[in-house]
Amino acid sequence: MALLNRPTHRPIRDRLRHVSRETTSAPSPSPSPWPGLMLAGCGAFLAWGVHVVVPAVPMLTASVVLGISVAHLPVTRTLVRGPARPGLSLAGRRLMRIGIVLLGLGLGLDQVLRLGWSTVAMVSGVVAATFFGTLWLGRRLGLPGDQPLLIATGYSICGASAIGAVSEVSGSDEEDVASSVALVTLCGTLAIAVLPLLQGPLGLSDLAFGRWVGASVHDVGQVVATAQTAGPGALGEAVLVKLMRVALLAPLVAAVAFSVRARRRGVRTPSGRRPAPVPLFVAGFLLAAALRATGVLPGAALDWAHTAQEALLAAALFGLGTAVHLPTLARTGGRAAVLGLGAWVVVAGVSYGGVLLTV
Fold first, then answer.
1. Residue 277 DSSP one-character state
2. What is the Cα–Cα distance from 303 to 106, expressed in whole angstroms?
3. What is the C-alpha separation between 285 and 345, in angstroms, rounded?
4. Residue 46: enclosing H or E segment and its boundaries?
5. How far is residue 261 CA from its own chain's centroid?
6. Cα 62 to Cα 45: distance, rounded to the nearest angstrom
7. Pairwise CA distance, residues 157 & 223, whole Å
8. CB count, 10 Å around CB of 59?
9. Looking at residue 159, what DSSP letter applies?
10. What is the pTM of this model?
11. pLDDT tens digit string along 136-188?
């Protein structure tokens, strides 16, 4: 009887084991990004509040500082490293891309070209010297990962926004991105206090000072905060020169993308496709700048786009700030500080010489 029962019972046991194995090995649902996205939105709102209360502190700078703080406070550290991490990482990538596309709508190409080809050549020289000089120094100092590339990008173009753009095509580690953003933001913030003190000793007129600020300070908000100390004329010149630097973001990102593509020739992405030669968000940035140049967009639409751009970039930078690990940053702090100081000297010195030649 037992022999007769064996054939019927064994398949049932095998099927039960098979079902159990399938249940055990079934992939768990991916964590929701919404807690992190909501936290990033709250961080951007708080950064806006800090900027309203203290106008000298740019909103994007406040976002990075708040993100770093939240990541290290005992009451919020567990949330940042746990359920909120997927959404914060998503904010640092996707929202950054959208914000950079909208950044193109603030780029008045017609206004930039009015400065003349000598100023275009000066700004191009400043960007090239700062980028390659910082990249060379960072590698000589032995900074890990993509930090030399990212810091060079941030100093030469437009701070944290440029770092985010280049990191998208270079596939940089999130911690390298966050550490680079923290360093560039710190140095750009110090410029707000230091550069106005140098206007008199360097013998710069208000117009020349504005151009110097636009050519040497990283973030657009930091440029505005620094240049406004010399009056509206200096501020206007600073913003135009700064926009010219921002216009060089697209070719720089495209060059990095081509370089990465050449190194990974024959290597496909997890989706089975080769890396795009020019990322879509860079093409969107150029299209947005071209659309702005046509003059078809009303002022209200441009104001709305500017507000949305700042909100998206603030949320993205808050997310990147939460990835900063201060103990890890401290281990390379000395070398990073030397690189930051060296890059600051290069961009300030080359731009000062360029301004003297073109004003």
1. S
2. 9
3. 30
4. helix 34-53
5. 21
6. 10
7. 12
8. 21
9. T
10. 0.68
11. 999 998 888 888 999 999 999 888 788 888 888 888 887 788 788 878 877 87
C-alpha–C-alpha distance, residues 96 and 228, integer Å:
27
Measured CA distances, 123 to 112, 189, 357 (Å): 11, 21, 12
Are the beta carbons of 248 and 123 closer than 8 angstroms? yes
pLDDT at 264 over 80: no
User: Which of 345, 359, 53 has its CA nearest to residue 233?
Assistant: 359
Q: Tell me if residue 130 falls in helix, strand or coil.
A: helix
Which residues, 6 or more positions from 238, have their beta carbon under 8 angstroms from its beta carbon?
A: 210, 211, 213, 214, 217, 223, 224, 226, 227
54 contacts 225 by C-beta, under 8 angstroms: no
Whole-angstrom distance, CA of residue 36 vs CA of residue 83: 7
Q: How far is CA 359 from CA 125, 221, 234, 356, in A?
A: 16, 24, 13, 6
CA–CA distance, 256 with 153 (Å, rounded to integer): 10
Min mean pLDDT across 22-26, 206-210, 261-265, 312-316 is at: 22-26
Q: Are 249 and 157 in contact, with CB atoms under 8 Å apart?
A: yes
Distance in angstroms (rounded) separating the CA atoms of residues 143 and 350: 24
SS3 273: coil
Measuring CA to CA, which residue among 105, 112, 73 is closest to residue 285? 105
Is the pLDDT at 49 greater than 60? The verdict is: yes
**Helix (H) / strand (E) containing 126:** helix 117-141
- Specify the length of the chain in residues: 359
**Alpha-carbon gap, residue 220 to 241, rounded angstroms:** 10
- Give the 3-state secondary structure of residue 248: coil
Which residue in the block uniquely carries the two structure tokens 């505005």?
Answer: 224
Q: How far apart are CA 122 and CA 135, in angstroms?
A: 20
* CB 277, CB 258: distance < 8 Å: yes
